[in-house]
Design brief:
Length: 248
């Protein structure tokens, strides 16, 4: 039997999401399964995840909010971030799946699903995910660390492109139309960015010739350009198969 306090808390979560959800996070709730919701985060500009879609299933346990929700990431079998595993596991302090202190950890009195989604967007799908790896934050600003970060971003973008193809082929239930509309809108920008990267621009900074990385690098690697050159026709084909005109 559903506890009245649990039901009230879930309804409060719905209200917060309805009122305060940013434009680049989308949520689907289910009146017949109030213990579940599905969220989609749009990859932000300036990150190796730009323009991609990231889907998460969120489960509210019976003792919520005394325990945090459980979260499953739709990985498509890809590991494109230190915090997001191929198995769907999400490592985040708010979920008690990662170490943390203070506001980083779940607080039954104040933590919300909105806070969780914003954390996934800002702390996980960020500009330099390489430094999310345990212990790597000490290399921020150091030449080797920044160089490794650029390499990680290149690989993350290649995997993000594969993820786009997977999502186009198998969009999550109840988000089929949204996936089609999103990529119809963003496909030209995605392909423009790919061509900019093939021209040497750093990942996340397409058409920004003035950008220089923290280690002084101005151009992406030759290996990345070769791999992207092989992958780009497949991405174009995936858009075309989904009925998305991309002018390539």
């Amino acid at each position: 039997m559903v506890k009245r306090g649990w039901l009230k808390k879930i309804q409060q979560e719905w209200t917060i999401l309805q009122n305060d959800l940013p434009d680049d996070i989308h949520v689907r709730v289910y009146e017949e399964r109030m213990d579940l919701l599905r969220a989609c985060i749009v990859g932000a500009a300036g990150t190796p995840y730009h323009d991609n879609l990231f889907f998460f299933d969120i489960f509210f346990p019976p003792d919520y909010p005394h325990e945090p929700p459980s979260v499953h990431y739709h990985s498509g079998g890809l590991r494109l971030n230190p915090n997001l595993y191929e198995t769907g596991k999400v490592c985040l302090s708010l979920l008690k799946t990662w170490a943390g202190t203070g506001n980083e950890v779940w607080n039954p009195e104040g933590s919300t699903v909105l806070q969780l989604l914003l954390s996934l967007q800002a702390l996980v799908l960020n500009e330099k995910p390489y430094f999310n790896e345990a212990g790597y934050d000490k290399f921020v600003g150091k030449a080797d660390g920044e160089k490794n970060s650029i390499t990680y971003n290149e690989n993350a973008f290649l995997l993000s492109c594969k993820s786009m193809m997977y999502i186009l082929h198998k969009p999550p239930k109840h988000f089929e139309n949204f996936v089609k509309e999103h990529f119809t809108c963003r496909a030209p920008h995605i392909l423009e960015a790919c061509n900019a990267y093939l021209g040497g621009d750093l990942v996340g900074h397409a058409r920004d010739s003035t950008y220089i990385s923290d280690d002084g690098c101005k151009s992406c690697s030759t290996g990345f350009k070769i791999m992207l050159g092989k992958q780009l026709p497949k991405l174009v084909a995936a858009f075309s198969e989904a009925g998305i005109a991309c002018g390539q």
